[in-house]
Amino acid sequence: SKKQAEKAVHQKKEQSKTKCRKARRRHINLVAEFNHRQKKNIWLETHIWHAKRFHMVKKWGYCLGNSPTEKSYRACYRAMTKHCLLQDLSYYCCLELKGKENELLKQLARICSIDTGLTFQEACCLSGRFEGSLNLYRADHYPEDMLGPVTFIWKPRDGSEDRQLWIWVHPALKQDILRELKAIFQCSEPEEICVTEPVTISMQEEKQVEVVTSLGSKRKKEDKEGEKAVPVKKIIGDGTRDPFQSYSWISRTTGITISDRSMEILRYRLIGPLSHSVLTEALKAASVQTV
């Protein structure tokens, strides 16, 4: 009846006034909601900060800040020339190589050329002191079939023959470069046969996103353990990595391991004269203890 409908509306209004608007709009589990919204496009660690200040675009499996909502070009220029400007480059993909140094250099020489400048074997880069950059080509096809530009960092030597190399590639180039690296090192076998973390998280998320909605009652998570339910973890991975596939491969013949570390190793770029000062204030050196 009309009276009952008016009564229901009145009760709803009375209940809505008990909490502020911010509290009423807050999700019961923010992490579960954020994971749900990242099913197609992964967020960077700085996504919330950028989403409030930038026009966001969906590219390469990520949600990225494209242009500021306010006219902050002068402020950015001032920061670059006089202070410090930070950029989040975590959408760049990191490919990690592990194995004997001689074997790594032997095969990597096939996909680059000394004619273009630096190579993976350059002394200053090989020591781990400096980052290098070069163009990669399909194995033994230089100067044809260029794959694209990359940057790389060697982990400093620790006295062992085994070395560790990180190659940073643009997400649009990752699949081609990863395929070529797996081919030259003969890495076809998954290092670990296991279900990757994003799959486990998505299953937890589906259980927790299911809610019971009724007038005058809060949304409750559907979980057998009720209040003892384990909180949903943040998604680890990136938009270019299939959660159903392995992300680490090993070669039984060369002993080389290739791992996809995208979004596991974050990357930031600092520009400006005060960049070094900002880093020294933000980071404190750990005390080295020798056994």
Automatic annotation (TrEMBL):
<dbReference type="GO" id="GO:0000172">
    <property type="term" value="C:ribonuclease MRP complex"/>
</dbReference>
<feature type="domain" description="Pop1 N-terminal">
    <location>
        <begin position="4"/>
        <end position="99"/>
    </location>
</feature>
<dbReference type="InterPro" id="IPR039182">
    <property type="entry name" value="Pop1"/>
</dbReference>
<protein>
    <submittedName>
        <fullName>POP1 protein</fullName>
    </submittedName>
</protein>
<dbReference type="Pfam" id="PF06978">
    <property type="entry name" value="POP1_N"/>
</dbReference>
<dbReference type="GO" id="GO:0001682">
    <property type="term" value="P:tRNA 5'-leader removal"/>
</dbReference>
<dbReference type="InterPro" id="IPR009723">
    <property type="entry name" value="Pop1_N"/>
</dbReference>
<dbReference type="GO" id="GO:0005655">
    <property type="term" value="C:nucleolar ribonuclease P complex"/>
</dbReference>
